[in-house]
């Protein structure tokens, strides 16, 4: 009996620690139905890469664990933390992280189904983020429409020189002309937008705060 109690006391913190990884959440199914529960959320509240699947419980102490992928749900929200949208479509296929980047410009695309992290959700534009071990990607959507990737390519011109090819400028100019026509300050700002989240956030927030529905 004493040995059993010692074992129970030893295992109890482990069980509590495992349960503590499940955060209050909800998922939205393809038909629009909402399922409330708890999602396993590791790394102290962050995924180092966008998840390819999630583990879900209806209650924290539930022994039944459901697994959802971007093919089986429309979106999921970890309350007070993060939200992810399922995206199915073309994404850039090249790598843009060192040393994965290639030795020539590669603009090829591939069909994939992935989770996009919601960065900004606005009345005109929304910004999303995706990363895996090959590449970081950003996407913009209009009025909750299908997200479009902000294309960016990185490659080695020679073994010691890397070349960056941002190809999202035309899309940003088109959006600025659509929602904030005649805003010369915004147009000048676009020329300095780098492939960094804060620059894209600033652009999207500017449109959402000062733009007008065309």
Describe the structure.
With 214 residues, this protein is an alpha+beta fold. The chain has a domain at 19-80: Roll (SH3 type barrels), CATH 2.30.30. It has four helices and twelve strands; from the N terminus they run αββββββββββββααα. Strands 4-3-2-1-5-6-7-8-9-10 form a ten-stranded antiparallel beta sheet. It has a two-stranded antiparallel ribbon with strand order 11-12. The model is unreliable at 4-19 (pLDDT under 50).
Q: Beta-strand percentage?
A: 35-45%
Biggest sheet strand line-up: 4-3-2-1-5-6-7-8-9-10
The residue fraction in helices comes out at 10-25%
Give me the strand/helix succession: HEEEEEEEEEEEEHHH
- CATH class term of the domain at 19-80: Mainly Beta
Rg on CA atoms, Å? 21 Å
- Continuous helix count: 4
The number of strands is 12
CATH architecture assignment of the domain at 19-80: Roll
Name the average pLDDT: 87
The oligomeric state is single chain
Q: Unreliable segments (pLDDT under 50, ≥5 consecutive)? A: 4-19
The main sheet comes to: 10 strands, antiparallel
CATH fold assignment of the domain at 19-80: SH3 type barrels
Shape: globular
Summarize the structure.
By secondary structure, the chain is of the alpha+beta class. 24% of the residues lie in helices and 36% in strands. The protein has a domain at 19-80: SH3 type barrels (Roll).
What distinguishing features does this structure have?
alpha+beta, SH3 type barrels, ten-stranded antiparallel beta sheet
Secondary structure layout:
Elements: H1 2-20, E1 22-28, E2 34-40, E3 54-57, E4 66-68, E5 75-78, E6 82-92, E7 109-121, E8 125-131, E9 136-142, E10 148-149, E11 152-158, E12 161-166, H2 169-179, H3 184-190, H4 197-210
Antiparallel strand pairs: 1-2, 1-5, 2-3, 3-4, 5-6, 6-7, 7-8, 8-9, 9-10, 11-12
